[in-house]
Amino acid sequence: MRVKFAVFLLLGLLIMVLNCGERRACHYIEQLKSGDKETRIDASYQLLLMGKSAVEPLIQVMRSGDERSRFIAIQLLGKIGDSRAVEPLIDALVGESLPLREVAAEALGKMADERCVPPLIDRLHHDPAPSVRAKAAEALGVLRYIAAEDALIEALQDTSAEVRVKALAALECFWDSRLNPLFVKMTEDPDDEVRYVAVQILRHTRFPGALRQLIKLLNDEVPAVRQEAAYALGEIGDKRAVRPLLNMLVEYKDEADRKAAQTALKKLTGAEYKVLE
User: Does residue 212 sit within a domain?
Assistant: First the structure.
């Protein structure tokens, strides 16, 4: 009898704790509707602290609340990372609201669940909004499931530069030597941010096959691109880049250009180079 009584007592206490947690969550969720920003921030923080006990109430508000509450609930569910939220977040990913699709894609990237990959790939290919496609690419990079690699490679042909940038950055997370020629090709992209990210990746990978293209980019019209190309040449370590880097040092007057060339030359030759005015 004592054992049964103890079991019933523990069950009763557990139910009380769960009910109390749910009531607390509902209280804070109600505050998400507040017109006061500080109140919403505090309520969001408290729900985040509650963690898994706030998941079911957050899923409910995500399905039936006003748009602002749903937006915050999706953000919180992504940060909490509970697998119960995966299917509801997938539903939000294909909904009518652009802001909710964006934040749902971001949240799914934090879930560490393979179920997130196919719907994110679908949005990467088919969502009409470039911002959602970009968020999907970014999320796939965070998840790092190899099944997404081909979809990200295909996304490098997207009409939106924003999507191409995010797809490139995501592919670096999958990096192996097979992708290096693809990164070199993307340094020819008409968008300067895409070129910059591609060069930045080549700086990290130190791919020798990028030498000729990186030398060409020392004359890019965008300062950030040519400077990053100089740094990348320093990392690759091929002394055939010395002469082009010396030309860059002399031809460009901008301090950032000169610093990039000097840094690369120091890595290649061990010598300090200065420009005499």
Answer: yes
Q: Domain check: are 157 and 220 in the same one?
A: no
Q: What are phi and psi of 87, to 5 degrees?
A: -65, -45
Looking at the fold, whether 181 and 260 belong to one and the same domain comes out as: yes
- As a whole number of angstroms, the distance between CA 212 and CA 168 comes to 21
CA dihedral (97, 121, 91, 106) positive or negative? negative
Indicate whether 16 belongs to any domain. no
> One-letter amino acid identity for 16?
M
pTM: 0.86
The pLDDT tens digits for 219-254 are 999 999 999 999 999 999 999 999 999 999 999 989
Q: How far apart are CA 101 and CA 110, in angstroms?
A: 15
Alpha-carbon distance 41 to 39, whole Å? 5
Rounded Cα distance between 85 and 72, Å, is 14
User: For residues 140 and 152, what is the distance between their CA atoms, to the nearest angstrom?
Assistant: 8
How many Å apart are CA 171 and CA 247, to the nearest integer? Answer: 33
Predicted pLDDT of residue 43: 87
Pick out the chain residues at pLDDT < 50: 1, 3-20
Give the amino acid at 12.
G
214: containing domain: 175-277
Residue-by-residue DSSP string for 258-269: HHHHHHHHHHHH
Structural domain includes residue 78: yes
Are residue 144 and residue 231 in the same domain, yes or no? no
